Amino acid sequence: MGAASGEAFHGRKRIDGTCGNDGLAVGWEMNLRWLNALLWGNSVALAWMWGLGLFFSVQISFMFGMPGLLMFAVPNALGLMLFGVLTEVVAKRHPGGQESLALFFDKFAQPFRLIFYIYQIVALSLTVFALVKYMFVPLFMPLELGNGAMMALSMVMVVFVLLAAGCLFGEEFGIGKIKAGHALMGLLLVVCVGWIIFNMQPGGVGSGYAGMGEKAGYSQTRFWGYSVPLVVGLLVGPWLDLQHWQRAIQIHREKTSVRLSYIFGGVIFFLLLLFHGWLAMWVMGNAGEGFTPAHTGLDGLSYAHDLVVQYFSRGFQGNSWVPVAYFAFLCICVLTTLDSGYVALKWFLGKNVEKSENMLLSIIPKQMVASPIPTFMLVGLITAVGYFAKLELEYFMVFYASFFVGYAALAIARCFVPNS
Question: Kind and range of the H or E element at 22?
Fold first, then answer.
C-alpha cells in the first residue's frame, strides 16, 4: 500500500511538473509574441513615417493648429490599425496556414501590379523630395554657395547620398531582419525625441495651438475642404503599399498577430505625428514676431513645412544639441522608409520577374530587372524634377487623392467582396 501510494505520488509529481513546464513555455511563447508584435509595430510606424506624415504634420499644424493635426493624425493611425485588423481576417479566411496571406496576395495583386509599383515610386519620390526641399535646402541656404548652379549640384549630391543609404540599409536588412534594425533606429528616435522634449517646455505652445492659418488665408471653410480627402485617403492608404503587405505576410509567417502588430504601429505612429505637430506649434508660439515661417508657392498659397527646420537652423537660442537631435529625427524617419521601400521592391520585383513570360523582359538580365536600384534611380530623377520645378508636397498629394484612392477602394473590395 505504501509503495503504491509512493508511486502514485511521484507519478502525480511528474504530471504536475510537466503541466507546470508546459504552462511556463506557453507563457514565454505568449510574451515573445507580444514582444514580436511590438517590434513589428515599431517597424510599421517607422516605415509609414515617410515624407507625407513627416512634413505635412507641420504644414497642417501651421494651417489649422491642433484641430488640423488631429484631423490628420487620427485617420492616419486608424488606417494602419484597420489594415492590420482586416488583413488578419483575410489570413484566417483563406487556406494555407502561415502561408495563407502570401498565397492570397499572389492572386490578389495580379490586377494591381503596375499600381503597386507606381505607388511605391511616388511614395519614395515624395519622401526624398520632402527631406531635400524642407530640410537640406533651408540648411544649405545660409552657406551662400555663390550661385544657383552650386546649390542645385549640392542638392543632387544629397539625393544621391540619401538613395545610396536607403539601398545600403535595404540590402543589409531583409524582411526577416528589418524589425531588429528598426528597433535600433526606434531607440535612437526615442533618445532624440526625449532630448528635445526635456530641453523645451512641453506645455508652452502658447498661441501656436491655433496655428497661423488665418493670417495666411486658410479659413475654416478650407479646413472642411481638406478634411474629406484627407480622412478618406488616409484610411485606405496602406492597402496599396507593398511595404505593408510584405510586413503583414511576414508577421503572419512568424505566428504573430497582424492585428496586434498594426495596433501597436498605429499608436506609435500617432505619437510621432503628435510630437512633430506639437513641435511646430511650439515654434509658432515661441519664435517671436520676427520669425516668418511661410513662403509662397507657385499657386500663391502659403507653405511652412520647413518652419521647425528654419527655427532650429537660424533662430534657436537653447541647447545646441537640440537641433542635432531634431535633424537626426528627420533623417531616421526617412531612412527607415527608404530601406523598407528597397526591401519591398526587391521582394515584389523578384516575384514578378520569376513568373513573367514577357519576351521583352527575357532579353534583359533578370538580375537587373529584379533589382530595386533602377527604380531608385527613377526616384532620384523625379525628386530632381520636383525640386527644379519648385513643387510642393501637396502637389504629390493631389496625385494620390485623384489616382490612388479609387484603386485602394477596389483593392479592399477585392479582399472581401466575392467576384470583385
Answer: helix 2-48
CA 126, 127, 128, 129 torsion-angle sign? positive
**What CA–CA distance (Å, rounded) separates 86 from 255?**
16
Domain ranges of the chain: 2-416
Q: How far apart are CA 116 and CA 242, in angstroms?
A: 6
pTM: 0.87
Cell numbers representing residue 263 in the block = 495596433
How far is residue 256's CA from residue 87's CA, in Å, rounded to a whole number? 13
> pLDDT value at position 1?
47
Q: Which amino acid would we find at residue 280? A: A
Residues in the chain: 420
323 Cβ partners below 8 Å, 6+ apart? Answer: 312, 313, 316
**Among residues 41, 61, 1, 393, which one has the least CA distance to residue 210?**
61
Q: In the block, which residue shows the cell 541647447?
A: 319
Q: Virtual CA dihedral for 258, 264, 268, 270, nearest 10 degrees?
A: 80
Max mean pLDDT among 70-79, 197-206, 217-226, 312-321 falls in: 70-79
Q: How far apart are the C-alpha atoms of 251 and 299, rounded to whole Å?
A: 44
Cell of residue 260, nine digits: 496586434
Q: How far is residue 18 CA from its own chain's centroid?
A: 45
Q: Would you say 59 and 305 are in contact if contact means Cβ atoms under 8 Å apart? A: yes
First to last CA, the chain: 72
Picking from 189, 178, 226, 191, the residue whose alpha carbon sits closest to that of residue 341 is 178
Phi, psi of 94 (to 5 degrees): -105, 150
Fold (topology level) of 2-416: Sodium/glucose cotransporter (1.20.1730)
Distance CA 69, CA 223 (A): 11
- Which residue in 289, 288, 330, 324 sits closest to 306, CA to CA? 330
